[in-house]
Amino acid sequence: MNTSSPIDGGVMAAVLTPLNDDLSPNHAAWLAHGQNLIAQGCTGLAVLGTTSEANSFSVAERLAMLDALGESDIDAGLSVPGVGCCAIPDTVELCRKSLEIGAAGVLMLPPFYYKPATDDGLFAAYSEIIQRVGDAKLKILLYHIPQNTGVPITLPLIEKLVTAYPDTVIGIKDSAGDFSNMKAMVENFPDFNVFSGSDAYLLDILRIGGAGSITACNNISARESAAVLANWESDDAESCQAALSAIRLATQKFPLVEALKEAMARQTGDAAWRTLRPPLQPLDAQTAETFWAALGAAGFSAAA
User: Across the strands, what pairs with 108?
Assistant: First the structure.
């Protein structure tokens, strides 16, 4: 596995976005969180995705965040911004900004409003974006999360895209939770970087030649994921994965973004982490206590 770039393989966090009281993104806190995730072992930062609440942000807000990232001390080459929008011009603009700051690649949802969407229609949308961006440096990870989008990225669609754009469409994040689908992608598309969107499958995906993981839980379990990545070929692999899976299983019983922000608030002592952009809402007090107890029982360390 070539790990010269985060899009080639490794463990990335789907990075949470801390918000100010007025619900605007807190750039300073966001960048500090990103630096901390890298220090804990993340090989890349998937920013502006589902966990980031990005679809609740305007394009202007997302562009401003990418500018802040590009001007920061974080190596933008470790970032993979989410860029997929319903409107092609919005996606193109976010792609261009990602290229401008030197991002490793982009994570691209399909246009998700009009359903049902055919493979031909989705191919046409992706093709139009690639041609409008018109830059050979563009590297796209497709984003398969049909439980949110209602628009799956099928194997036939992947085949069409990698055949037409082999140097541009280079991988996928599969967040559907179906390991058999990930395995089919690994087996059918050589040199296509398949990332699991579930921590539970990190060891499994590495063992079959997949790329690694891009997950929400890496906001609080980066060390555990890094341990799996470092030891997946060793005798310690199963125990490393068990520690990671325990945190994932405890977390997935609760609303994911809300729970992770609650964990960050408790871990850092900063209540501002509980701020979410509606329609998301903070966990109520009883649910928050139940969640925190479940994390503790799963072996989660509150040390930041």
Answer: 142
Residue ranges with strand state E in 98-250: 106-108, 140-144, 169-174, 193-196, 212-215
> Alpha carbon 140 to chain centroid distance?
13
Instruction: Give rounded-to-5 percent helix, strand, coil for the chain.
Output: 50, 10, 40
Q: Is the dihedral of CA 240, 243, 245, 247 positive or negative?
A: negative
Domain 10-234 has CATH 3.90.550.10: no
Other Cβ atoms less than 10 A from the Cβ of 38: the count is 17
pLDDT means over runs of 10, the chain (304 residues): 77 98 98 98 98 98 98 97 98 98 98 96 98 98 97 98 98 97 97 97 98 98 98 97 97 97 97 98 98 96 67
E strands, the chain, are: 10-14, 44-46, 106-108, 140-144, 169-174, 193-196, 212-215
CA-to-CA dists, residue 285 to 16, 271, 300, angstroms: 21, 13, 20
Residue 1 is predicted with a pLDDT of 39
Q: With the CA atoms of 95, 85, 78 and 135 taken in that order, what torsion angle do they form, in degrees rounded to the nearest 10?
A: -20
Terminal alpha carbon distance of the chain: 30
Considering only the C-alpha atoms of the chain, give the largest distance between any 2 of them, rounded to a whole number of Å.
52
Angle at 248 (CA atoms; ends 223, 33), nearest 5 degrees = 45
Q: How far apart are CA 202 and CA 148, in angstroms?
A: 21
Q: How far apart (Å, rounded) are the C-alpha atoms in residues 117 and 111?
A: 9
- Give the CA-trace dihedral at 240, 246, 247, 252, to 10 degrees: 140
Domain ranges of the chain: 10-234
